[in-house]
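Project outcomes to date are best conveyed with an example. Our students and postdoctoral researchers have been running inverse folding experiments weekly, and each run begins with a structure described purely in tokens. The record below, which covers 273 residues, was selected by the lab manager from last quarter's runs and is presented without edits.
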């Protein structure tokens, strides 16, 4: 009874039986409290404050730790552009069919290597660091990259159907070789480079793509490329006359002179004199 009166007055019973004066808040903790169960509050002997039973709400600060979908897409898109890593000054990406034709034509006698790749090609991605290393070791060679996913129609017109794929071009000789290789068969690429790299002076302008490939690109409606077949030069009439009259005309062989014999000489020959 004394303990109850002491608790009502704000005192706390100590283990030794002495009464100590405490604040009303401490006594409230010792008193029976209410707990929220479901949608109602019920009394319980729990020595504490109110306890809300329910789903714990996440802190507002945790929102900053989660990236938005837009940020995630930008990060993934940027990390997937592996073909732009490690590029050398003598490497660049082709933008159109006209750009490819002009690059080959303006290269002159310089060796040009066209690299056809696709962003989703695992073999292309594995081979890319070695191609960049080879380009760094050969600064006099021009490397052109063609993205198959962006130029499918152009690749189809010039008969590129396997990846990774490479073509070597030089001056008036045009296409030197074409092949497909992977990281395991990189020796094929190095052998072709060693064979065609030595400087050579070609007679005439750079050829670039084949005539049939240029016509196929021009006939492709998906491409903005025009090409007119150059007529073959025909020698004029004066040139033809010069060729014919360049050699001296053949003179007929001189005829042997006829010797006429008189009647007296015939009689002497017949008589044996």
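After processing, the design step wrote out the following sequence:
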């Amino acid at each position: 009874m004394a303990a109850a009166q002491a608790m009502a007055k704000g005192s706390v019973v100590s283990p030794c039986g002495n009464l100590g004066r405490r604040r009303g808040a401490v006594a409230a903790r010792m008193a029976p409290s209410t707990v929220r169960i479901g949608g109602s509050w019920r009394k319980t002997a729990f020595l504490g404050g109110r306890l809300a039973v329910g789903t714990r709400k996440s802190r507002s600060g945790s929102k900053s730790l989660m990236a938005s979908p837009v940020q995630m897409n930008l990060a993934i898109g940027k990390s997937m552009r592996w073909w732009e890593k490690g590029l050398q000054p003598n490497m660049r990406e082709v933008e159109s069919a006209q750009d490819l034709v002009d690059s080959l034509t303006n290269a002159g006698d310089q060796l040009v290597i066209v690299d056809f790749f696709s962003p989703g090609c695992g073999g292309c991605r594995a081979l890319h660091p070695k191609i960049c290393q080879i380009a760094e070791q050969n600064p006099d060679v021009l490397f052109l990259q063609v993205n198959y996913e962006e130029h499918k129609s152009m690749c189809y017109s010039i008969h590129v159907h396997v990846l990774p794929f490479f073509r070597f071009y030089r001056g008036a000789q045009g296409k030197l070789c074409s092949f497909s290789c992977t990281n395991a068969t990189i020796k094929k690429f190095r052998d072709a480079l060693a064979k065609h790299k030595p400087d050579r002076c070609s007679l005439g302008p750079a050829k670039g793509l084949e005539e049939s490939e240029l016509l196929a690109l021009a006939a492709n409606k998906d491409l903005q490329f025009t090409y007119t077949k150059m007529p073959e030069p025909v020698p004029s009439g004066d040139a033809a006359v010069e060729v014919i009259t360049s050699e001296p005309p053949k003179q007929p062989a001189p005829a042997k002179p006829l010797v006429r014999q008189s009647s007296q000489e015939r009689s002497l020959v017949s008589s044996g004199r």
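Strands lie at 11-13, 19-21, 33-37, 40-44, 51-52, 91-93, 111-117, 142-147, 165-170, 174-180. Residues 266 and 272 are 10 Å apart (CA to CA). The training component of this project remains on track.
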